[in-house]
Amino acid sequence: MNRKCFCCFNNMNTNNEDNELLKDWIEFRFEKLESNLTDEDKKHALYYDTFCKKILDVISDKDSDYVSDTLDVFREELLNHCVYWNEKYYMNGIQDTIALLKL
User: Fold this and answer.
1) CA 19/CA 95 separation, integer angstroms
2) What residues have CB less than 8 Å from 80, skipping those under 6 apart?
3) Residue 99 burial by CB count (10 A; 0-12/13-18/19+): exposed, middle or buried?
4) pTM for the whole structure
5) Cα–Cα distance between 90 and 83 in angstroms, integer?
6) Which residues are CB-neighbours of 24 under 8 A, at least 6 positions away?
7) 36-75, pLDDT tens digit by residue?
């Protein structure tokens, strides 16, 4: 276990800043998951750039800049949406776990 996370859990009962603990945990898990992708994980990746290229290949040159800019905005919105809901889901799960451990 990462030393930082072990210390976080060690201080859980005395730390009133549960949100900081949760943010640290999510950051740790993201780094851990990102560096340990399996072949199965890679099969389920979203190949956004491939989709964009396919779309731009069938768009006329005069519209390609507009469509490309719109796809970039969509990518950002999609990423923000996923990050928001994943963090919310995991934050609630971790908060439930912390509440159970404090009983």
Assistant:
1) 9
2) none
3) exposed
4) 0.57
5) 11
6) 4, 5, 8
7) 888 888 888 888 999 999 999 999 999 999 999 999 999 9
